[in-house]
Amino acid sequence: MICTRCGARNTDTARFCKKCGNRLEPQRPAQGRKKGIIIGFIAAMILIACGGIYIYAGKACSPEESLDCMLDRLAKRDVMGAFGECVFTPEEQASIDRALYSGDIDNMVPDNISEVLTSSFVRFEKVYESGPYLDTETMRQAKDVSFNASIAGPYGSNVDIVTMTFVESSDKFLGIFPKWKMKGSSLDDFLY
Using CA atoms, how far apart are residues 83 and 78, in angstroms rounded to an integer? Predict the structure, then answer.
């Protein structure tokens, strides 16, 4: 132990300096400070990771992501996968179940939808999103989203403003963040 008054070296167990008699205070190791820095660093990394998850979840659960996923599945003629991106009323679901049972599920979408989606450049740009409200048909939180819909390709060029209703689904990203899915009637309006 080193005396803070005269600088003399003393044994680690000495209570007083052997040269000047000054009371020696045990030196605290610097580990407490290092430990605090490490804990602070870990806390900062956890906050950054949580922020990243929150931002990613906001995009992954958004109406735009649901629409993109549904269009991708329709382009691949995965009708059931596309319907999985929607929320239906009990009556609509019963109609889908009947079509599935009878083997007519592919007839529920236009024959050329896959061709149109794969051979055209389809883009949706969100221009407006309403605040959430209770949808009385599905009894779920809903919001209306308006898109500039542009389709360019062999089927012509078209730009329209399309408004679709999305409802909060029971699916949750990471068990926390609700996913927004297209309401069945909006899908019907979109397809026809």
Answer: 9
Assess contact for 110 and 191: CB atoms under 8 A.
yes
Q: Could you read off the pLDDT of 67-108 as tens digits, one per residue?
A: 888 888 888 878 888 888 888 888 888 888 888 888 777 777
> Could you tell me which residues come within 8 angstroms of residue 27 by beta carbon, excluding any fewer than 6 positions away?
1
Pairwise pLDDT comparison (146 vs 172), residue with the higher score: 146
Neighbours of 87 (CB within 10 A): 28
> Residue 175 and residue 63: Cα distance in Å, rounded?
18
Contact predicate 1/15, CB 8 Å: no
Torsion over CA: 85, 90, 92, 93 (sign): positive
Tokens of 179: 């996913």
